[in-house]
Amino acid sequence: MTDTLDIKITKIAASRLAETDFSNLPFGKVFADHMFMADYADGEWKNFEILPYGPISLSPAISALHYGQSFFEGIKAYKHADGKVSIFRPDKNAIRFNKSADRLCMPQLPEELFVQTIAALVDIDREWIPGKANHALYIRPFMFATDPYLGVTPSATYKYMVLIGPVGPYFSKPLRVKVETHYTRAAEGGMGYAKAAGNYGASMLPARKAAEEGFDQLIWTDAKEHKYIEEMGAANAMFLLDGVLVTAEAKDTILDGVTRDTVIALAKDWGIPVEERKVSVAELVEGAKNGKLTDAFGAGTAATIASVASISYDSEEYFLSDPATREFSKKVLTTLDDIKYGRSEDTHGWNYMV
Ligand code: PLP
Ligand code: COI
């Protein structure tokens, strides 16, 4: 892969691999030896470089810091039992990367460049990919504006970077989630469909308030009426209601998740009806009461398939069935893991081999 791209490679003098505790991998805190970096200037991408992971020097006036011209992606790479390495559906993230760039007035990155730069970096640090179940190499591509200029206008220069690091599970237990009816993650015409850094900054106060009340995650609702489900924290919210897989349609307030798309494809393979539509909080509450809500989970790259233990709404907490007994999400998780770790045939062509 590296031979088709001109990447300057500077290897780390002494790998940190041996001193890394792979039995304790909190999400997002451990980084592999190398990172990728490129610059956008004069209308083109240049200076492709793989270098040791570490601090970089930037002007404090860069517009990413002041006006939030910044966005990211999240992808995972897996190690198979025979030592092969695959990245899960990076082509989908490449497309979403450019949708985010477009919304934030930032430059496009050719899709093949996105995939090739990630693959080149993963290849160099392939020893960092954990071999254990529920573990993977998390890949964090991101782009940010670098003009040292305080005028509110799109920057002319940018950096595209990729960080990678071994991770274990993001959530350690089924989640108590609260339906948020005051704050809003995204409104129509906003940037909910983009993986904009600002969307995550805006989510922190409501998430902290919910955590103070003992909840693990929020279910975001629509900005107008707070009646319809949008997403669950940093994951898409999916439900099995009366035998039908239901989830909010991927409109402009929703991040069009790769995991969501993958779950929908599997459900369709299995003949399970799928509805991408407005899902009201009222019908979920009704389903929780009458037992027709048989599965509920967040779907995301970091979150994987995160079971919902209970849904709180209007001061009532509705407990769902024991996650260990839920057939659908268990089958999704097993099927997905079998594909990602190379144990079963990848009939959809989701694994990008490195
Ligand atoms: N929704 C939001 C707001 C997210 O941050 C994520 C995580 O990436 C998702 C949904 C799930 O998307 P994906 O499955 O592509 O990781
Ligand atoms: C991911 O699932 O990759 C995400 O981006 C979630 C992250 C914000 C923790």
UniProtKB/TrEMBL annotation:
* Signal peptide region: none
Which top EC class is named for this enzyme in its record? transferase
Q: Which pathway is this protein engaged in?
A: Amino-acid biosynthesis; L-valine biosynthesis; L-valine from pyruvate: step 4/4; Amino-acid biosynthesis; L-isoleucine biosynthesis; L-isoleucine from 2-oxobutanoate: step 4/4; Amino-acid biosynthesis; L-leucine biosynthesis; L-leucine from 3-methyl-2-oxobutanoate: step 4/4
Select a single GO molecular function from the record's annotations and give it: branched-chain-amino-acid transaminase activity
A Gene Ontology biological process in which this protein takes part is: amino acid biosynthetic process
What cofactor does this chain's UniProt record say it requires?
A: pyridoxal 5'-phosphate
Q: What Gene3D superfamilies does UniProt report for this protein, alphabetically? A: 3.30.470.10, D-amino Acid Aminotransferase, subunit A, domain 2 (3.20.10.10)
Q: Does the keyword Transferase apply?
A: yes
Tell me which Pfam families the record gives.
Answer: Aminotran_4
Which UniProt keywords are present, listed alphabetically? Amino-acid biosynthesis, Aminotransferase, Branched-chain amino acid biosynthesis, Pyridoxal phosphate, Transferase
Q: Which reaction does it catalyse?
A: L-isoleucine + 2-oxoglutarate = (S)-3-methyl-2-oxopentanoate + L-glutamate; L-valine + 2-oxoglutarate = 3-methyl-2-oxobutanoate + L-glutamate; L-leucine + 2-oxoglutarate = 4-methyl-2-oxopentanoate + L-glutamate
CDD domains in the record, alphabetically? Answer: BCAT_beta_family
EC number(s)?
A: 2.6.1.42
N6-(pyridoxal phosphate)lysine modification, residue list:
K195
Amino-acid biosynthesis keyword on record: yes
Q: Give TM segment ranges.
A: none
Free-text function comment from the UniProt entry:
Acts on leucine, isoleucine and valine.
Q: Its family?
A: Belongs to the class-IV pyridoxal-phosphate-dependent aminotransferase family.
Could you tell me what this protein is called? branched-chain-amino-acid transaminase
Organismal lineage: Bacteria, Pseudomonadati, Bacteroidota, Sphingobacteriia, Sphingobacteriales
